[in-house]
Design brief:
Number of domains: 1
Shape: extended
Strand content: under 5%
Number of strands: 0
Largest sheet: none
Order of helices and strands: HH
Helix content: 10-25%
């Protein structure tokens, strides 16, 4: 598994961590939270996203040979129309 960091370094980045021996230590959930807070984003607070959002957590690892897609892409692929269920009976 590789790790790369591209783009302009931001003032809040902990770039020394990017050189950690173990890849999993190079960018942690705790770092993500600190980075987001530096940008005034409360990333792990479900109330910060408003009433029209969904927060999904999963501890299930995604195998490297699996295709991962965004919710929007999955909806298009499955022909799911957001909000359509609200119009159905039941």
């Amino acid at each position: 598994m590789g790790f790369s960091a591209d783009g302009t370094e931001q003032w809040f980045e902990e770039t020394e961590a990017y050189r950690a021996r173990r890849v999993r230590d190079r960018f942690t959930s705790e770092m993500l939270e600190r980075y987001c807070k530096a940008l005034d984003v409360d990333v792990f607070n479900p109330r910060a996203y408003g009433p029209q959002s969904v927060l999904v957590r999963s501890e299930v690892p995604v195998p490297p040979d699996r295709y991962v897609m965004s919710l929007e892409r999955a909806q298009r692929w499955l022909e799911v129309v957001p909000g359509m269920a609200d119009t159905l009976p039941g």
